[in-house]
Amino acid sequence: MKRRFSMTMILAMTCILALAGCSGGNSAEPSGTTQPAQETGSSGTQEAGGNLRVIWWGNQDRHNLTSEVLDLYSKANPGVTFTPEYQGFDGYYQKLTLLAASNNMPDVFQFYVGASDANQFVDKGLVEPLDGYIEKGLIDVSEIGESTLSGGKGSDGKMYGIPLGVNARVMIVDPAAYEKAGLTVPENGYANWEALYEDLKKLKETTGAYGADDLFNIAFTLPYYARQFDQTVNAEDTGIGFDEKLYTDFFTYRQEWAKEGLIPKMDASMSVKNPEESFLVKGQSAVMVGYTNQYPGIAKAAARPLKMILMPGPNSEKAMDVRPGLHFSIAANSANKETAAKFISYFINDVEANKVLNANRGMPISSTVRAALMEQFEPEMKDVADYMEIVAEHSGPLDPPAPAGATEIDTLMIDLEQQIMYDQISIQDAYEKLQKDAAAIVAKHKQ
């Protein structure tokens, strides 16, 4: 589980970004300093020289694979070198904020356009729009669907990130635990949360610990849960797009299931730092939720057969979505924008590079790349490919990008989440405070 910012840190970051936003321009047209072009190896395009600073987050496997691809690109393009920077997710956006404040943003950075942590960088003009680079063919998106690309657009309709893969939410279950409990895994997912609740009581007896890992982390599950009832987490005018009943039902599930020991209490959940350390992996639960790109690592860490099913209903078909796993973006003040654009194009389209990456950041977005990789996929990754086909037929459109102020609202929601789960505030009082403070945050950002 991700470590959360304090409100003080968020406010400090906002102040820093306010200063940093004055330091770089923001143009929709390609710009930047280039050097004499050199022929590439496999891409067949002209590549300008220069050193690219590239930053990303992930585990050691991602670091190794990405570094190998950087080396491949440099060998094919002798004029291009890289300065890689990488770390785990914890502290990533704080680091990016400090880099922005010192006018030292990397040329290319891993991002998630539309997330509240990312929006502040876009709003301050620190992220380069990529539409002009696409129009000139520097970033080839000819084999990428419009719905996939749309996930990289900001609220102004401009493209601020190129998806590096697509993911979907997934419920991961342990078939052996189900069999031992005398249960059948629902092939098409649970019809409702109550049906899952009944099975978790039996699965808890089987594992001797929990029925499931934490299923109700608000950053992961609340957006899905809201979509089940035609609501959203964020709203442009009011800050939050869900009513009190939905909020109450969500946290009532979470409180009651935790009290019954069907899922871990919050302190135990927060001790899990990554999916490979989950209670499911340790055999102490039989169900967990996550994203599809996490499944191969979870399955390997568990060292036993697991299975993916759709998230619980009702209305899972409109609540599920196919989303960009991550994006690569370019800094607005980069001196190597065209070089950066061509590298991003290579990263998503080159077959040999993607054979190395092996869908680490989600299922490849290029149809040619996907077809080429199917032959080399290990069984767990083939399972992901099959599952993504199912989700594509049972999903709705993405939610609109989070509005200005969403970062502060998310932080408020996380603070209230902890207060609720530690019995420091009632759900009703928490919703009242959230509704009032979220509206105030939106009003402040509209001034």
Count of helical regions: 19
Low-confidence stretches: 1-47
Spatial gap, N to C terminus? 35 Å
How many E strands? Answer: 14
* Cα-atom radius of gyration: 22 Å
Explain what this protein looks like in three dimensions:
There is one protein chain. Helix 2 (60-76) runs antiparallel to helix 15, helix 4 packs antiparallel against helix 18 and helix 10 (244-259) packs across helix 19. Helices cover 45% and strands 12% of the residues. It has helices at residues 7-20, 60-76, 92-101, 116-123, 131-135, 146-150, 175-180, 193-207, 221-228, 244-259, 266-270, 295-302, 316-319, 337-349, 351-357, 367-373, 379-393, 406-421, 427-446; strands at 38-39, 46-47, 50-57, 80-87, 108-111, 162-163, 166-167, 169-173, 232-235, 239-241, 287-291, 307-309, 323-324, 327-330. A 5-stranded mixed beta sheet has the order 4-3-5-14-6. It has a 3-stranded antiparallel beta sheet with strand order 11-8-12. It has a two-stranded antiparallel sheet with strand order 1-2. The protein is an alpha+beta fold and 447 residues long. The model is unreliable at 1-47 (pLDDT under 50). It has a domain at 7-165 and 324-384: D-Maltodextrin-Binding Protein, domain 2 (3-Layer(aba) Sandwich). Strand 9 (232-235) and strand 10 form a beta hairpin. The chain starts with 6 loop residues before the first helix and ends with a helix. It is globular. It contains 19 helices and 14 strands.
